[in-house]
Amino acid sequence: MENFTRKQVSALELAVAKQFGAENVSQTFSITPQKAQKIIAAARLENSFLGRINVIMVSNQQGEALALDATGMIAGTTDTSSEDRIPKDPHSKGGTSYHCQQINFDTLIKYVTLDAWAHNKKFKSLVAVQTRKQISTNQIQIGFYGKSRAATSNPVNNPKGQDIAIGWLEKLRTQNAENWLDEGETAGEIRIGEKGDYINLDAAVNDTKQMIDPVYEDDGDLVAIIGSELLAAEKAKFYDLHGNTPSEKSKIEDRQIIGTYGGLPAFKIPHFPSRGILVTSFKNLSIYIQKDSVRRRMEDNAKRDRYETYQSQNMDYVIEELGKAAALNFENVKLSTDGGTNWA
Predict the structure, then answer these.
(1) Are 117 and 123 in contact (CB under 8 A)?
(2) Tell me: the pLDDT tens digits for 313-330?
(3) So what's the pLDDT on residue 255?
(4) Are 166 and 317 in contact (CB under 8 A)?
(5) What is the pLDDT at residue 256?
(6) pLDDT at residue 283, as a whole number
(7) Rounded to whole angstroms, what are the CA distances from 141 to 135, 233, 340?
(8) CA separation (Å) from 48 to 35, 42, 43, 264, 282?
(9) Contact 14/8 with Cβ under 8 angstroms?
(10) What are the structural domains of the chain?
(11) What are residue 285's DSSP bridge partners?
(12) pTM here?
């Protein structure tokens, strides 16, 4: 690390210590709930997906879903001459329970990168954003791929965080199997394309939507989250049919083709499984973070020529209403490029 970079890093450490009321950032310090809320708010501003779902602080380490969305019928009539009016709870029909457990988000920046940033007036922001961006990215990825929690996770065998925590899709699979499709006519496979279970993506999304519980099926906030590979395959079909028509080609380039599937607004979310389909509302997906559990440490590791930031927090993934979510098993989705003869 160059001398000027060292001064910049020292100034960064002083700023962080002042911001969080820590005496020494090289020793682990706790971040108050108020400060943690500001970190969460900053991450949500930078990440469109986190900005759409719920990321909230909870007091208890474990409990039931908070049921943040009102739903169901509360209108009614009562003959008050003979009976009392009885208020109805417009909230939960049944969400997932939560157990906030420690997840570590430890990052490093090599000296060569710090030296390159050192003369930038926004040096402190560059370092902060680098760390915040990775934490946000990992949180989303675990939410979609997480299947279990290991005492010590193995990033080699589970590069998408499958063994760090149980995410939304796995909770849906294990806690509401009626809203989870594992296979079509062929055992262990869901075929999308000509001669498959679904002739196209539109049909697959529509069938997924049909699994939503009737009380939610007409909710105006339902969306279809669709994997990039499925969208690309559908786009390729559209090119084959209309690619030589200027007006239609422009629609493809403008991404209008991604507008709706199965009658629902379609969204492409970073780090969502490339062959996945999930129908729900954004506000039905939550990340709970336990108050007073966010801890951090910053450390210069000269032995490795890098600067390290250690952060941990107790957190979990929650589906507020299980009946308002339905999905296909992305691991079993098969596509064909030869008219349905071969599937892979």
Answers:
(1) yes
(2) 999 999 999 999 999 999
(3) 46
(4) yes
(5) 41
(6) 94
(7) 10, 22, 31
(8) 21, 11, 9, 19, 11
(9) no
(10) 3-69+97-164+286-320 (no CATH), 178-284+324-335 (3.30.2320)
(11) 319
(12) 0.87
